[in-house]
Design goal:
Length: 310
């Protein structure tokens, strides 16, 4: 329960609150369960404050300092956290639907199982954040930094991750159906058993990523770069891989049925038991003149061998 004295000081505004905190650096304010709706708390110093179960809906926390704050199960509906610093904060189970988090910092933040539907996170820094099971459906994470973030089982349906940095991120079992990942950097990311049905990954970089048993059915991967990527057992039925680069990739058991691989380069790729039935493999390039004997192709169609100088 919130400390009445602490709550009263905060309600006098950010300037008064910040002076009080400077005078009492040894205190850890107790504001759990407090109703802080619509309060003007711009640039408030809320480091290490206990805000569990607090209601901060529609509050103005732009530029606020929330490093190490405990916001577990807090309500942050439509809150303004523009350029706020939530480094190492706890937002596990928090509800932040419609929140404005543009360029906010969430490095090493725990937001597991939090709800961020329709949130604005353009340019936000979520490096090494814990986001397991979090819901980012219809949110905008364009140009966000998610390097090393843990998004295991996260829901990112229709999320915008255009030009996002997801190097080394864990997206295993995540739902990215209809997500926008154009030009996203997914190098070394873990996409094992992720759902990317109908996702847009045009010009994305998946080099070194693990995508075994992932579902890319109907996904747009035109001009994708996936050097050394492990796609083993994944579904790419009806996917668009036109002019994609899949060199040195593990494509064992991949289902390319009805996919477009026009002009794709599969040099030195493992194609054992890959299924190309009904696929467009016009000008598809492989290293050897003939494919492996267990490659499943439509009738007599054969990919074009990669010639020296190509």
């Amino acid at each position: 329960m919130a400390n009445r004295e602490h709550l009263g000081i905060l309600k006098q505004g950010s300037a008064h609150w910040n002076r009080w905190r400077e005078q009492h650096p040894e205190l850890r304010p107790e504001l759990s369960g407090a109703n802080l709706q619509r309060l003007p708390l711009r640039e408030a110093h809320l480091q290490n404050v206990d805000l569990r179960w607090a209601n901060l809906s529609n509050a103005n926390l732009a530029g606020a300092q929330l490093q190490g704050a405990n916001l577990g199960r807090a309500t942050l509906r439509d809150v303004d956290l523009f350029r706020a610093d939530l480094t190492a904060a706890n937002l596990s189970g928090a509800f932040a639907g419609g929140a404005y988090l543009l360029q906010a910092t969430f490095c090493r933040t725990n937001a597991s199982h939090g709800v961020f539907q329709r949130a604005e996170l353009v340019g936000a820094d979520l490096e090494a954040a814990r986001l397991e099971g979090a819901n980012f459906s219809d949110s905008d994470l364009s140009k966000a930094n998610l390097v090393g973030a843990n998004l295991y089982g996260a829901v990112l349906v229709r999320a915008r991750l255009n030009q996002g940095k997801l190097l080394g991120a864990n997206l295993s079992h995540a739902n990215l159906q209809e997500a926008h990942l154009q030009r996203a950097e997914l190098n070394e990311a873990n996409l094992t058993e992720a759902n990317l049905t109908d996702a847009n990954l045009q010009e994305a970089d998946l080099s070194g990523a693990r995508a075994a048993n992932a579902n890319f059915t109907g996904a747009d991967l035109e001009r994708v770069v996936a050097v050394g990527t492990d796609w083993q057992g994944s579904w790419l039925r009806g996917a668009n891989l036109r002019d994609g680069i899949l060199t040195n990739a593990n494509l064992e058991g991949v289902d390319f049925a009805q996919a477009c691989l026009h002009g794709a380069i599969l040099a030195d790729a493992c194609l054992d038991n890959a299924n190309f039935r009904g696929a467009d493999i016009t000008n598809m390039q492989v290293l050897t003149e003939l494919p492996p004997p267990n490659l499943i192709l439509l009738e007599e169609v054969r990919p074009r061998p990669l010639a020296i100088g190509d």
